[in-house]
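Mods, move this if it's the wrong board.
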Amino acid sequence: MNRIVVVALALTAATVWGEDPQPKKEPHKLPPELKVLRLGLIAKSQSNPVFQAARVGAVDAAKEWSEKLGIPVEVDWRTPLDEDAQKQAEYLEQLALQGVRGIAISCSDANTVTDAINRAVARGIPVVCFDSDARNSKRFCFHGVDDLECGRRLMAETAKALGPAGGDVAILAGNQNAPNLQKRVAGAKEEAAKHKNIRIVDVYYHKETPQDGAARVEQVQQANPHIKAWCMVGGWPLFTDVLLKWEPGRIKIVAVDALPSQLPYVEKGVAQVLMAQHCYNWGHRSIDLLVERIAYGREPKNPIDTAPLIPVTAENAKEFGKNWEKWLRKL
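Not the wrong board. Structure tokens:
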């Protein structure tokens, strides 16, 4: 068979299988004079590793889009050291004035940042929320878990861990003003109402640092030794090793997230289930959503872009932990 026939057959096969023998880049709608596409990323705090993972995801997405678009895509990371909604609002204003083309934010307090989001949108800068939403703002999309469903699943796993005997359950809830955490608490209470053998002692709030979270749990447990389980809508205390001294299984723990520091808790049986969020994807997906809108004018199919929860137990903790080698690498 001569070369011409071979090439012809290859082209025919490509057509049959729906492949473009010479794939062409889809033309974008960015101004030809634009040299760099700058996007802002505002997380809740630099002290929380889940947001470091989100930053890595955003940077990786930016690199991928740089190749696709043919111009550099850069991520401008503006995040307070610890949670501070007012600083987040200030960063929104700064980024908008400094000419970024889009902004992604995880809101510490929706009420505090909504006006700043709306002012950015009024300047023609699209905003996407991730992890924690500002539902009443003019952001065009939210990417994150369904927080009500997250709370329900946490309490369902707590009830399962307690078994038929049930018992008193404490809910640990971090920042009282965070809209995502409020919804998780609501979901947990809703699920608890379905279990006659479960009684919620109270909802306990604290500053969202590992040390404050662990201190709060120890303080409450000491004052209320009848508490049989902790339903944690965030994993803050497990970012430290403070509670690893607890006798495995005596007090049940079900928590959100499955960071490297949390995995020993399920491996040793101190915690029964961790509900992992794909923190890396918070950043990656946010950048994808922004670039799709800015460069191609594409809107998401749904303004609520729901992310999955991944149950992590002693059985799959080691395998899941491999993700963090990528997610927490140094930038």
